[in-house]
Each structure stands twice: as structure tokens, then as C-alpha cells.
Amino acid sequence: MSKPSPVGTVMIAAARAAGRSLARDFGEVENLQVSKKGPADFVSNADHRAEEIIYTSLAKARPGYGFVMEERGIVEGTDKSNRFIVDPLDGTLNFLHGQPHYAVSIALEREGKLLTGVVYDVAKNEIFWAETGRGAWLENRKLRVAARNKLSEAVVATGTPWHGKAEEAHRNFAREMLAMTPACAGIRRYGSAALDLAYVAAGRFDGFWERGLKPWDIAAGIVLVREAGGLVTEIEGGDVMQTGSVLASNEDLHPLIETQLRHAAAFARKAD
Known about the structure:
Elements: H1 6-32, H2 40-61, E1 65-69, E2 73-75, E3 79-90, H3 92-96, E4 103-110, E5 113-121, E6 126-131, E7 135-138, E8 141-142, E9 155-158, H4 167-180, E10 186-188, H5 193-201, E11 207-210, H6 215-227, E12 231-234, H7 240-243, E13 246-249, H8 254-271
Parallel strand pairs: 1-3, 9-10, 9-11
Antiparallel strand pairs: 1-2, 3-4, 4-5, 5-6, 6-7, 7-8, 11-13, 12-13
């Protein structure tokens, strides 16, 4: 059994501390569902509280490291080689509606390369963690991506473009669904990219694709999938951390999913 490095241990502790805060607030959100005001402002405050817990904990343990955070933005550190990439609440819409599927996501990037990833599924109390060269783990159980090699037997996760995205993004997603739905055993949309990627690492999903995500949505999950033996690429072949368009699966299914997405893109070009 592998153990996390000292910095990995610190990241896990920070994720758990933020998770405890979110879990307390989640109980209040469930009560706020019936209020006229609604829980939106409360959830925003919960998000900020969780991020503050993570920032305070990591900054104390690793002074000088920089941060890329969903709420706080970029925080420059004196150590230009290391920075944490943090999403204190991935799955905000689920949290907002009292649905117990949300996560804390923390990654460490060193000299431009993702080194460590932690995803904490708060409601299920599951810590997924991975470090380059140490493998991917669920608590103390080693993870491996699923071994399926037929797309027709695969369950694939995705994320829909959110309200407010350009109409073109919704049309393109609809075309991708038309290409993917008949090709695989099932498609799931759970609303947390960090957990989707963690579930690919754990073999619960056979693959995952989504476009236009933010670095904090995917950084930790990318480390998990790679260390679990999976393949993570940018859908069009670019830099996944720049575009946020991610495709993750095992090496056998990866080209099969790519082919279906290309069919959708070709149909879009023909329609235009």
C-alpha cells in the first residue's frame, strides 16, 4: 500500500476540513429549499468558507506556493515552481438543490506539470488521491481504470453546457449526444466533473468527455485517471488545461470515443 507524500497528506487534510464545513452547510441548504429567498446566497457563502479553509491550511503548510482558485482567482507565490489548483465546491448546482453529489478538488502543479490530485466526495466520505509515480487510490485501495474494450458495453459520463452558454455550444453537444448515445451502453450526467474523472479512475465510469471546463474542475481528476492507467487528452488535440475540453478513458476505448466525437464534429461542419 502506498502512502501520500507530505504535501499529499496536507492536501488530503485540507480537503477533509473543507468537506466538513460543506457538509454542515449542506444540511442548512436542504432546509432552505422551502424558503422564499432560496439557498443561492447561502451556497455562495458556503463556497467561500470552504475555499478559505483550504487556502489557510495550504498556505500555512506550504508558504510561498501559488494558488489558482475558483473564487479567489490567481494568487502569486514567491515559489514560482509550485501552485495549488483548487475548486472548493465542484457540483455547485447539485449542492444548491440539496443533491448529495459534490466534491472538493485540489491539485498541485509543479513546473507546469500536474503532480498530485485529491478529490473528496463529501457526501460519501470518499477520498480519491493520486501522485505521479505513486498510483491512484481510494483511501488505501489502489485504483485502476475499467478494462472494457467495447464501446457498446461502456458507460460514459459527460456534462451538458450550462444555462447561458452560446447556442452553438448546445447544438454541438446535441450532435455529440446523437453520435454517442447509440454507440455506448449508457450515458450519465451527474454534474461534477471532478467526480466524473475520479469515477473513471475507479472504473465506475468507462469514459468521460466535456468541453469548456476550467482548470480547477479537471486538474486533480487528470492526475487520478493517469495514475490509474487511463488516458486523458484534449478533445481536439490541444492543451487540455488551456481549453478545458477533456476526454478520459482507458487506452482501448479512447480512440473509439474520439471517433464518435469526430463524427459529430463532421456533421456540424456539414450543417454549417
